[in-house]
Amino acid sequence: QVQLVESGGGLVQAGGSLRLSCAASGSIFSIDAMGWYRQAPGKQRELVATITSGGSTNYADSVKGRFTISRDNAENAVYVVLQMSSLKPEDTAVYYCNARRRGYDHWGQGTQVTVSS
Question: How far apart are CA 50 and CA 33, in angstroms?
Answer without folding.
Answer: 7
